[in-house]
Amino acid sequence: MKTFEYHNYYEILQVSPNAGKDQIRHxxxxxxxxxxxxxxxxxxxxxxxxxxxxxxAIETAFQTLVDDDKRDAYDQMLIDTGELNAAAFxxxxxxxxxxxxxxxxxxxxxxxxxxxxxRAEEPEMRQRIEAILSGPRLSGxxxxxxxxxxxxxxxxxxxxxxxxxxxxxxxxxxRFEDLPATVYLKQFLKSYAQILQxxxxxVVDSYLExxxxxxxxx
Length: 218
Hints:
The chain is mostly helical. Helix content is 64%, strand content 0%. The chain has helices spanning 9-13, 21-35, 48-65, 68-80, 103-120, 123-134, 140-150, 154-161, 165-172, 182-195, 200-217. It is globular, with a radius of gyration of 19 Å.
């Protein structure tokens, strides 16, 4: 039997490759209820570390399968690697988004932010956040460590902020020479801080101080 980390996204959410978005959203909510740390049914089955891994996998699976482009690419990968046959997807019809409000995008953003908010309330995350905010300066590696502690991927941030991964990697590595103009960097840092549930003003001001100091030293 495959362990959880070796299941594909359809198996993780327990839906068929032809499942519609409503089915996927329903399965996602059920999975959160089942594997949540407050779940009586699975409380004794997983360690905190295992539970966090499960929740991150569930979130990644959901974010991928409710996004048409990501899902198409993922399905093709499953076909190319031989994990699933193309016939498994034959009856799924891709629906073009209707004009007006993108309900799926709104749902993804709401669920993602709700998940991050809940993670931010955990004692371990609160300690990490307080440690970062209490320091004299803020560095990119500190932001990276916090992002990874949440289990947030670059594609999650891009989906909500449109900050591309090259900029994110430059910020997290303190590669100041590769960063955009300050006016844009401030907005990127603000959006990044909001994703991580930390004070945007502090993040912007403190990171810019670190950047100025680092630039002068070089």
